[in-house]
Amino acid sequence: MRRLNAFLTSIFVALMTFTTISAEAQNRRPAANRVGGPFGLGLQLGDPSGFVMKYHLDSRVAVDGGLSFAFDRWILLYSDWIWHVPGGFGNQNEFVSQLNPYVGAGGLFVVSTKSESEVRREKYFSDSSSTRIALGVRVPIGVEWRASKIPLGIYLEIAPGLTIVPATTGFVQGGIGGRFYF
Predict the structure, then answer these.
(1) pLDDT tens digits along 44-75
(2) Could you report the per-residue pLDDT of 80-133, keeping only the tens digit for each?
(3) Within a 10 A sphere around the Cβ of 157, how many other Cβ atoms?
(4) Taking Cα atoms as reference points, which of 41, 90, 48, 85 lies closest to residue 64?
(5) Which tops the pLDDT comparison, 69 or 28?
(6) pTM score
(7) Cis bond upstream, residue 151 (ω within 30)
(8) Given 1.10.3720.10, 2.30.110.70, 2.40.160.20, 1.20.810.10, which CATH number is that of 2-177?
(9) Residues 59-67: contacts with CB within 8 Å, 24+ apart?
């Protein structure tokens, strides 16, 4: 029964995220000066490692998300609202002008696949936690390089966060990743 509740909760969170993206996308136009389209899919290596996506609503605003899993430990889903600063490092040369620093705010949903007693050793759960579901917030800070001739973005990110449910626990995530835009 608990797994069914966790599964239904994760479906609900995913549907709410994509509904928000769709509604906002109707009011904005994606950046036209990039090769490839506004939607990117790729991989991230780090903590968490997994599949990532990003949708640019315009040249300054995007929504990103990721799905990460360690089948013997947990499944993690996150989504962030991202604000880019195009040309934030200046325009000294083509490479530097393609670097876009960003900051964001988002949410995190974690389901532990371990028993209740083993959950307490996971970083998203407190020592007194007996639940296998965690909700939290995160603040991603990073830089993305978008190539001018190929539809590729490579990024480096760090995301401090706070698990709020079942208890307040701090964590830091981060990684390097790449997305193919179409």
Answers:
(1) 999 889 999 999 999 999 999 999 988 778 89
(2) 999 999 888 988 888 898 999 999 999 999 988 776 656 555 677 766 656 788
(3) 22
(4) 41
(5) 69
(6) 0.77
(7) no
(8) 2.40.160.20
(9) 59/31, 59/33, 59/84, 59/86, 60/84, 60/85, 60/86, 61/28, 62/102, 63/17, 63/20, 63/21, 63/24, 64/104, 64/106, 64/140, 65/17
Q: For the CA atoms of the chain, what is the radius of gyration?
A: 17
Retrieve residue 90's tokens.
Answer: 């200046």
Lookup: tokens for 17: 């995220």
Which tokens in the block code for residue 130?
């007996």
The tokens of 80 are what? 């962030």
